Amino acid sequence: MRFLLMNLVPILLACNNTSDTSSTEADSLQQTKTNAKATVNSDCGNQILFKEGARITYAQFDGNDKEFSRQTSIVKSVENQNGVWQSVVEMDDLSNTKMANAEVEYSCDGKQVHFDMQNLFAKNGMEAEAVIKADRLSFPLQLKTGETLSNASFKMSAKGGTIFTSDITNRKVESIEKISTTSGTYNCYKITADLNVDMEMPGMPAAALEEMKKNIPASSYTMWFDPSFGVVKMQMFQGGKLQFRSELVNVE
Which domains does the chain have, with CATH numbers? Predict the structure, then answer.
Protein backbone atom coordinates (compact mmCIF):
# COMPACT_ATOMS: atom_id res chain seq x y z
CA MET A 1 0.00 0.00 0.00
CA ARG A 2 2.76 2.42 0.89
CA PHE A 3 4.52 1.54 -2.37
CA LEU A 4 1.43 2.44 -4.42
CA LEU A 5 0.70 5.69 -2.64
CA MET A 6 4.29 6.93 -2.79
CA ASN A 7 4.09 6.67 -6.55
CA LEU A 8 0.81 8.55 -6.82
CA VAL A 9 2.43 11.73 -5.52
CA PRO A 10 3.40 13.30 -8.87
CA ILE A 11 0.09 12.54 -10.61
CA LEU A 12 -1.26 16.07 -10.75
CA LEU A 13 1.65 18.43 -11.23
CA ALA A 14 -0.46 20.67 -13.45
CA CYS A 15 0.61 24.28 -13.86
CA ASN A 16 -0.53 27.35 -15.82
CA ASN A 17 3.07 28.45 -16.34
CA THR A 18 5.72 27.18 -18.74
CA SER A 19 9.05 25.80 -17.60
CA ASP A 20 11.08 28.03 -19.97
CA THR A 21 13.81 30.16 -18.43
CA SER A 22 12.98 33.55 -19.97
CA SER A 23 12.77 36.36 -17.43
CA THR A 24 9.09 37.08 -18.13
CA GLU A 25 8.03 33.48 -17.63
CA ALA A 26 10.31 33.02 -14.62
CA ASP A 27 8.69 36.06 -13.02
CA SER A 28 5.27 34.58 -13.80
CA LEU A 29 6.19 31.29 -12.13
CA GLN A 30 7.48 33.09 -9.04
CA GLN A 31 4.25 35.09 -8.89
CA THR A 32 2.27 31.84 -8.99
CA LYS A 33 4.33 30.45 -6.12
CA THR A 34 3.72 33.39 -3.84
CA ASN A 35 0.24 34.48 -4.87
CA ALA A 36 -1.39 31.29 -6.16
CA LYS A 37 -5.15 31.40 -6.66
CA ALA A 38 -7.59 28.47 -6.74
CA THR A 39 -8.27 28.80 -10.48
CA VAL A 40 -7.00 26.97 -13.54
CA ASN A 41 -6.61 27.52 -17.25
CA SER A 42 -8.33 24.66 -19.07
CA ASP A 43 -5.61 24.74 -21.75
CA CYS A 44 -3.70 21.52 -21.13
CA GLY A 45 -0.70 22.88 -23.02
CA ASN A 46 -0.08 25.35 -20.20
CA GLN A 47 0.12 22.60 -17.56
CA ILE A 48 3.65 21.72 -16.45
CA LEU A 49 3.09 17.99 -17.00
CA PHE A 50 2.72 18.83 -20.68
CA LYS A 51 5.84 21.00 -20.96
CA GLU A 52 8.68 18.94 -22.39
CA GLY A 53 11.84 19.22 -20.29
CA ALA A 54 10.11 20.34 -17.08
CA ARG A 55 11.56 18.92 -13.84
CA ILE A 56 9.53 18.59 -10.61
CA THR A 57 11.17 17.39 -7.37
CA TYR A 58 9.53 16.06 -4.20
CA ALA A 59 11.13 15.22 -0.86
CA GLN A 60 9.68 12.32 1.14
CA PHE A 61 9.75 12.07 4.93
CA ASP A 62 8.94 9.24 7.34
CA GLY A 63 6.56 9.44 10.30
CA ASN A 64 9.35 10.98 12.39
CA ASP A 65 9.84 13.77 9.84
CA LYS A 66 13.18 12.36 8.61
CA GLU A 67 13.80 12.74 4.89
CA PHE A 68 14.47 9.36 3.28
CA SER A 69 14.08 9.97 -0.45
CA ARG A 70 13.79 12.51 -3.24
CA GLN A 71 11.97 11.94 -6.50
CA THR A 72 12.41 14.06 -9.61
CA SER A 73 9.87 13.77 -12.42
CA ILE A 74 11.09 14.81 -15.87
CA VAL A 75 8.69 15.41 -18.77
CA LYS A 76 10.32 13.39 -21.57
CA SER A 77 7.85 13.87 -24.43
CA VAL A 78 4.56 15.62 -25.23
CA GLU A 79 2.03 15.11 -28.03
CA ASN A 80 -1.30 16.72 -28.90
CA GLN A 81 -3.63 14.30 -30.69
CA ASN A 82 -6.96 15.80 -31.76
CA GLY A 83 -7.01 18.17 -28.80
CA VAL A 84 -6.04 15.53 -26.21
CA TRP A 85 -2.61 16.12 -24.71
CA GLN A 86 -0.42 13.14 -23.84
CA SER A 87 2.90 13.16 -22.02
CA VAL A 88 5.49 10.65 -20.86
CA VAL A 89 7.11 11.48 -17.52
CA GLU A 90 10.15 9.70 -16.10
CA MET A 91 10.38 9.37 -12.31
CA ASP A 92 13.95 9.28 -11.00
CA ASP A 93 13.77 7.93 -7.43
CA LEU A 94 17.07 8.23 -5.55
CA SER A 95 16.03 5.42 -3.17
CA ASN A 96 16.61 2.94 -6.05
CA THR A 97 13.26 1.19 -5.73
CA LYS A 98 11.56 -0.58 -8.65
CA MET A 99 10.01 2.76 -9.51
CA ALA A 100 13.44 4.29 -10.16
CA ASN A 101 13.44 5.58 -13.75
CA ALA A 102 9.83 4.43 -14.12
CA GLU A 103 7.81 6.00 -16.91
CA VAL A 104 4.32 7.38 -16.29
CA GLU A 105 1.80 8.39 -18.95
CA TYR A 106 -0.62 11.29 -18.48
CA SER A 107 -3.40 12.63 -20.67
CA CYS A 108 -5.46 15.82 -20.48
CA ASP A 109 -8.72 16.58 -22.30
CA GLY A 110 -9.04 20.16 -21.06
CA LYS A 111 -11.27 19.20 -18.14
CA GLN A 112 -9.36 16.43 -16.36
CA VAL A 113 -5.86 15.02 -16.04
CA HIS A 114 -5.78 11.22 -16.25
CA PHE A 115 -3.08 8.92 -14.84
CA ASP A 116 -2.82 5.36 -16.20
CA MET A 117 -1.90 3.23 -13.17
CA GLN A 118 -1.88 -0.04 -15.12
CA ASN A 119 0.43 1.36 -17.76
CA LEU A 120 2.87 2.48 -15.05
CA PHE A 121 3.42 -1.07 -13.81
CA ALA A 122 3.28 -2.68 -17.27
CA LYS A 123 5.97 -0.42 -18.74
CA ASN A 124 8.33 -1.03 -15.82
CA GLY A 125 8.47 -4.82 -15.82
CA MET A 126 6.13 -5.64 -12.98
CA GLU A 127 3.71 -7.56 -15.20
CA ALA A 128 6.44 -10.20 -15.56
CA GLU A 129 5.95 -10.93 -11.86
CA ALA A 130 2.20 -10.43 -11.57
CA VAL A 131 -0.97 -9.69 -13.53
CA ILE A 132 -1.89 -6.04 -13.02
CA LYS A 133 -5.34 -4.52 -13.48
CA ALA A 134 -5.93 -0.89 -12.59
CA ASP A 135 -8.31 1.96 -13.31
CA ARG A 136 -7.27 5.34 -14.63
CA LEU A 137 -7.07 7.82 -11.77
CA SER A 138 -8.59 11.16 -12.81
CA PHE A 139 -8.42 14.66 -11.35
CA PRO A 140 -10.65 17.56 -12.48
CA LEU A 141 -8.78 20.75 -13.34
CA GLN A 142 -11.53 22.74 -11.62
CA LEU A 143 -12.56 21.85 -8.07
CA LYS A 144 -14.96 23.09 -5.42
CA THR A 145 -15.15 22.38 -1.71
CA GLY A 146 -17.58 19.64 -0.77
CA GLU A 147 -17.09 17.87 -4.11
CA THR A 148 -16.64 14.07 -4.23
CA LEU A 149 -14.14 12.76 -6.79
CA SER A 150 -14.27 9.43 -8.63
CA ASN A 151 -12.93 6.24 -7.04
CA ALA A 152 -10.20 4.01 -8.47
CA SER A 153 -9.10 0.40 -7.99
CA PHE A 154 -5.79 -1.46 -8.29
CA LYS A 155 -5.51 -5.28 -8.41
CA MET A 156 -2.33 -7.36 -8.48
CA SER A 157 -2.42 -11.15 -8.97
CA ALA A 158 0.93 -12.79 -8.17
CA LYS A 159 2.16 -16.00 -9.81
CA GLY A 160 1.60 -17.98 -6.61
CA GLY A 161 -2.09 -17.11 -6.63
CA THR A 162 -2.00 -14.35 -4.02
CA ILE A 163 -4.23 -11.42 -5.00
CA PHE A 164 -3.97 -7.92 -3.52
CA THR A 165 -6.69 -5.35 -4.18
CA SER A 166 -6.53 -1.69 -3.23
CA ASP A 167 -9.52 0.63 -3.61
CA ILE A 168 -9.16 4.41 -3.42
CA THR A 169 -12.53 5.64 -2.14
CA ASN A 170 -14.23 8.60 -0.46
CA ARG A 171 -12.13 11.14 -2.36
CA LYS A 172 -13.45 14.43 -1.01
CA VAL A 173 -12.51 18.07 -1.47
CA GLU A 174 -12.54 19.31 2.13
CA SER A 175 -11.38 22.93 2.19
CA ILE A 176 -8.99 25.56 0.84
CA GLU A 177 -5.76 26.05 2.80
CA LYS A 178 -2.54 28.02 2.34
CA ILE A 179 0.50 25.70 2.25
CA SER A 180 4.15 26.79 2.37
CA THR A 181 7.15 24.64 1.34
CA THR A 182 10.73 25.43 0.36
CA SER A 183 9.43 25.94 -3.19
CA GLY A 184 6.92 28.67 -2.27
CA THR A 185 3.46 29.38 -0.82
CA TYR A 186 0.32 28.01 -2.46
CA ASN A 187 -3.45 28.27 -2.01
CA CYS A 188 -4.50 24.62 -2.08
CA TYR A 189 -7.56 22.41 -2.05
CA LYS A 190 -7.31 19.83 0.72
CA ILE A 191 -8.38 16.44 -0.66
CA THR A 192 -8.84 13.36 1.54
CA ALA A 193 -9.38 9.71 0.58
CA ASP A 194 -9.53 6.22 2.08
CA LEU A 195 -7.40 3.28 0.95
CA ASN A 196 -9.11 -0.08 1.39
CA VAL A 197 -6.94 -3.19 1.10
CA ASP A 198 -8.10 -6.77 0.55
CA MET A 199 -6.21 -9.98 -0.21
CA GLU A 200 -6.72 -13.57 -1.25
CA MET A 201 -4.11 -16.22 -0.38
CA PRO A 202 -4.79 -19.73 -1.75
CA GLY A 203 -3.88 -22.46 0.71
CA MET A 204 -4.29 -20.31 3.80
CA PRO A 205 -7.16 -21.35 6.10
CA ALA A 206 -10.10 -18.96 5.81
CA ALA A 207 -10.07 -18.21 9.55
CA ALA A 208 -6.37 -17.32 9.49
CA LEU A 209 -6.84 -15.11 6.43
CA GLU A 210 -9.71 -13.23 8.05
CA GLU A 211 -7.62 -12.69 11.17
CA MET A 212 -4.79 -11.32 9.04
CA LYS A 213 -7.17 -8.91 7.32
CA LYS A 214 -8.42 -7.66 10.68
CA ASN A 215 -4.86 -6.69 11.59
CA ILE A 216 -4.40 -4.52 8.50
CA PRO A 217 -4.70 -0.93 9.76
CA ALA A 218 -7.12 1.41 8.02
CA SER A 219 -5.25 3.61 5.56
CA SER A 220 -5.98 7.08 4.23
CA TYR A 221 -4.24 10.03 2.65
CA THR A 222 -4.54 13.79 2.57
CA MET A 223 -3.40 15.78 -0.45
CA TRP A 224 -3.01 19.53 -0.90
CA PHE A 225 -3.55 20.50 -4.53
CA ASP A 226 -3.21 23.95 -6.10
CA PRO A 227 -5.12 23.93 -9.44
CA SER A 228 -2.83 26.64 -10.78
CA PHE A 229 0.17 24.42 -10.09
CA GLY A 230 -0.43 20.83 -8.94
CA VAL A 231 0.16 18.62 -5.90
CA VAL A 232 2.08 20.56 -3.26
CA LYS A 233 1.96 18.20 -0.29
CA MET A 234 0.70 14.72 0.58
CA GLN A 235 0.43 12.67 3.77
CA MET A 236 -0.31 8.97 4.27
CA PHE A 237 -1.84 7.52 7.43
CA GLN A 238 -2.27 3.96 8.72
CA GLY A 239 -4.36 3.34 11.79
CA GLY A 240 -4.68 7.10 12.15
CA LYS A 241 -0.89 7.49 12.48
CA LEU A 242 1.21 9.46 10.01
CA GLN A 243 3.45 7.05 8.05
CA PHE A 244 5.07 9.41 5.60
CA ARG A 245 4.64 12.72 3.84
CA SER A 246 5.84 14.13 0.55
CA GLU A 247 6.12 17.76 -0.47
CA LEU A 248 7.18 19.81 -3.46
CA VAL A 249 10.68 21.23 -3.07
CA ASN A 250 11.73 22.40 -6.54
CA VAL A 251 10.39 23.14 -10.03
CA GLU A 252 12.50 23.90 -13.10
Answer: 2-251 (2.40.360.20)
